Amino acid sequence: MTTPAPAHRIGRKAAALATSLLLATGAGLAFAPAASADGGGSTLRMPITGIGIDSLNPFLAYFAGSLDVFAGIYPALDKVEQDGTVKPYLADSWTTSDDKLTWTFRSTRV
């Protein structure tokens, strides 16, 4: 007859398993191919970062994976460069009110 393992040993095993799964998933994402379209032009494949996709609703999404996908679908008025500077994307310029509560974006595109 065997005796059950103490609860703290089971917790450690579960934590070790969860950590190894997260590391394996992260390693798999690191080797994911870059964004590309298939020959038919109807599928965009792109790697995601973070935990994954939590929602396909852009108003409810929180995880980085969801936000990465939405960034590829929905264009933005501006973009943040790797060094943290903000550059125009769809908007050509913008101004803010003195109280910083109203932002006005301008674009020459129709």
What's the helix-strand series? HEEHEEEE
Unreliable sequence segments: 23-32
Q: Beta-sheet strand percentage? A: 15-25%
Give me the Rg, rounded: 22 Å
Number of helices: 2
The count of DSSP E runs of length 2 or more, i.e. the number of strands, is 6
Q: Identify the overall geometry.
A: extended
Spatial strand arrangement across the major sheet: 1-2
Largest sheet: 2 strands, antiparallel
- Average pLDDT across residues? 73
Structure explained in plain terms:
The chain is α+β, with helices and mostly antiparallel strands. It is built from two helices and six strands. The strands form three sheets. It has a two-stranded antiparallel ribbon. It has a two-stranded antiparallel sheet with strand order 3-4. It has a two-stranded antiparallel sheet with strand order 5-6. A hairpin with a 6-residue loop joins strand 5 and strand 6 (103-106). It is extended and about 60 Å long. Residues 23-32 have low confidence and may be disordered.
Question: What descriptive keywords fit this protein?
Answer:
110 residues; 6 strands; two-stranded antiparallel sheet
Gist?
The chain is of the alpha+beta class and 110 residues long.
Detail the topology: elements first, then pairings.
Blueprint: H1 7-30, E1 36-37, E2 44-45, H2 64-73, E3 78-80, E4 86-88, E5 93-96, E6 103-106
Antiparallel strand pairs: 1-2, 3-4, 5-6
